[in-house]
């Protein structure tokens, strides 16, 4: 009888072990199907996050503009009822500008800054009914007008055929 009980206990134990093993197998399968994909997804998210942070810290400094931190050191503006105005400003990175004028009739002013090569640039200008006229040491100087062109301009000024009605009639037949 004792041997039968031992056999029963052993069978029961083996059954429990088999059930536990099959439960473990099921648990491993559930773990594999549900938990591991979550871990992989989280790992992928973590790797993407680390890559983005690495790129952000590895960005060269030349992408950061020094002008981005410039502050306005001075600013003044005056607008009068007659349409005349005046303004001036200066920034902490060396940019300065000023202008005064009357509405859309004329303006005088200038601005200055330092070029990326370290050269100081200064422009003085006038804008009126004849256009915009800048003046600065760094601006190119046009070549002299050729003598033939000067003679042609003088001849055109001395012979204004557009005032001659006969010229108008003949020019239409060409």
From TrEMBL:
InterPro entries given in the database record: CHIT_BIND_RR_consensus (IPR031311), Cuticle_Struct_Prot (IPR050468), Insect_cuticle (IPR000618)
Keyword list, A-Z: Cuticle
This protein's GO CC annotations: chitin-based extracellular matrix
Segments forming a coiled coil: none
GO terms for MF: structural constituent of chitin-based larval cuticle
Metal-binding in keyword set: no
PANTHER family named in the record: CUTICLE PROTEIN, CUTICULAR PROTEIN 65AU, ISOFORM A-RELATED
Name of the protein described by the UniProt record: Pupal cuticle protein Edg-78E
